[in-house]
Amino acid sequence: MDAGYSKSAATNISENTNYYPDEREIVASEQNQNSNLSGGRSNNAISGTSANIVCNMTTTSEWLSPVLDSERISLCMTSNKISNYTRSTFNVASLDDREVSNAAGSIVFSATNSEMTTAVSGVQDEFATLDIGKDITISGTSSNNSTFTITSVASDGSSVGLTPAPTNETTSAAVITQHERYLDGIAPIGTSNASNYITRRFTVDNPATALKVLFEANRPDPSSINLYYKIVEEGDTRDFDSIPYVLATPDNVDNPDENPLSFAEREYTISGLNSFSTAAIKMEFKSTSTVEVPRVKNLRIIALAL
Q: Which residues are CB-neighbours of 122 under 8 A, at least 6 positions away?
């Protein structure tokens, strides 16, 4: 381990029950125990080991004493698989950055359409290699030297959707670098986030123009829940796995839940959509702590014609 740690005081727990610590705890390897815990168990069997089970036994009779079957004692530990990655914490520049275009031709940045476009065939070929959900960093321009997330890529490479919206500019000096490793939640398939729930693609009998998503959740601070959707609009011939997800906004401010037993209903109304018959929902769970994680139950998805 790169980060140091120390051994905590013993905690009283009941046998055959689950114990949930307030912060992350570990069982260290022999090497880490030797480095961080009093020289390891070879030096001190108690303070030098990262996990001990201590049992205090008492009796009121000199003729009777408790008995433990040591062959049946076990300590089973689990950890929540969750992350809070960003591109800056996940991507390794020396390994994962790819220069896509280097002043290869005229590029038009549009704030109105949130995109960059080109009519130069060589640059179109370069744009076609970009991936939805990945970040690009642009340099060499007058107004758009920044990092953007790719939201769409035209099949012929003529246009690339960007968020946030770029500044209006036409230039032939842009240098575009794609950060390959990190993948945002809007990506059509895959994500860098460790904990996700994705529904199956579902189809409704009658075309809809809105989605209502409801679920009950317990979301402790500092965790978060992001909800995404994707639809197949009427007449859209694209493969479903090539359509990006769209981040939805909750109907009300999502306040964290302080009581771990409390589940509050969350509601999302996604309206103003073009007519569709096929859709899917993705939920992305994030946290900076593996012991403070969001939990969700009773998910309902309703397709509406508004």
A: 104, 105
- The full set of domains in the chain, from first to last, is 1-78 (no CATH), 87-179 (2.40.30), 195-304 (2.60.120.200)
Alpha helices in the chain (DSSP H): 30-36, 87-90, 93-96, 121-127
Residue 163 and residue 246 in contact, taking contact as beta carbons nearer than 8 Å: no
Enter the tokens of residue 70: 């040591």
Q: Which of 109, 118, 100 is nearest to 166 (CA)?
A: 109
CA distances from 216 to 107, 213, 224 (A): 46, 11, 14
Cα separation, 158 vs 180, in Å, equals 21
- Candidates 122, 68, 30, 82; CA nearest to 222 is 82
Tens digit of each residue's pLDDT (9 = 90 or more) over 250-280: 999 999 999 999 999 999 999 999 999 999 9
Task: Render pLDDT for 206-234 as a digit per residue (tens, 0 to 9).
Answer: 999 999 999 999 999 999 999 999 999 99
Phi-psi region of 140 (alpha: psi -120 to 50; beta: other; left: phi over 0): left
* Residue 1 pLDDT grade (very low, low, confident, very high; cuts 50, 70, 90): very low
* Helix, coil or strand: residue 100: strand
Q: For residue 217, what are the β-bridge partners?
A: 264, 296
Among 221, 222, 192, residue whose Cα is nearest residue 88 = 192
Q: Which residues contact 245 (CB under 8 A, 6 or more apart)?
A: 185, 186, 187, 188, 228, 229, 230, 282
Q: Let me know: does 192 contact 294? Beta carbons within 8 Å.
A: no
